[in-house]
Each structure stands twice: as structure tokens, then as C-alpha cells.
Design brief:
The protein is an alpha+beta fold. Helix content is about 20%, strand content about 25%.
Length: about 120
């Protein structure tokens, strides 16, 4: 009885080792750069931005003036119908619009906030 159990146990162990051996011998080329296919349209860049030390292209941008703010939206993808899933946005308040301001009397004001949304990380104010 023990010989039969050892025989089947050895068979299962050998099968398991063979499965692990074949699964470990994959030929993935993770270091090869991914080139777009011939039918992928390469959009012209209007600039670049750097995020986490990596330079990214800016493909499209829009600017609007609404409610006393001048808002700029830049995206690494084409903005279609005013919608995009990845973008960088900033707004400037039109505090001195239409006024003559003596720059020698201005002081630096660092009261601003930055909201960053990332699908992988959560940053709060």
C-alpha cells in the first residue's frame, strides 16, 4: 500500500516540478521599446512637461476665461469635444485686470494650492 502511495506521490511531485519549470521559462521581452504600429497617428507636440522625472509631450491645449479666472488645460492626448481623461489644468485669478499696477509696490504672495489626482496614489491638501 505504501509503495502505491509513494508511486502516485512521486508522479504528482514530478508533474508539479515540470509545470513550474515550463512556467518559469517564458520569453517575455520587457526591455524592448514598444513602437506604434504603422496605422497609429503620431500627433505633433506643442511642448513638454516633466512628471516624476520623465518628460511627456503636450499634444493639445485650451484656454478659457470664465468667472474672473483664466483657465488653461494641457493634455498629452487630443482633446475632443472639450473632453479628455488625462490633463494638467491651472487657473489664474484676474484680480488686476484692467488696472494700472505699480510693480514696485507689489509683494510676493505664496497663497496658492495644488490639487493632484492620480489613479494609483492619493494626495490630499
Amino acid at each position: 500500500m505504501k509503495k502505491i502511495l509513494l508511486k502516485y506521490l512521486n508522479l504528482y511531485v514530478l508533474s508539479g516540478l515540470l509545470l513550474v519549470g515550463f512556467a518559469g521559462c517564458s520569453d517575455d521581452k520587457d526591455n524592448d521599446p514598444v513602437n506604434p504600429g504603422p496605422d497609429v497617428e503620431e500627433l505633433p507636440s506643442i511642448g513638454t512637461y516633466s512628471f516624476r522625472g520623465e518628460a511627456n509631450r503636450i499634444v493639445s491645449g485650451e484656454a478659457t476665461m470664465d468667472g474672473g479666472y483664466f483657465t488653461c488645460i494641457f493634455s498629452p492626448e487630443k482633446i475632443q469635444d472639450g473632453k479628455t481623461s488625462t490633463y494638467f489644468l491651472f487657473s489664474l485669478g484676474m484680480y488686476w485686470e484692467g488696472q494700472v499696477v505699480d510693480a514696485s509696490t507689489l509683494y510676493q504672495n505664496d497663497q496658492y494650492f495644488f490639487i493632484y489626482e492620480d489613479p494609483f496614489y492619493y494626495y490630499f491638501q
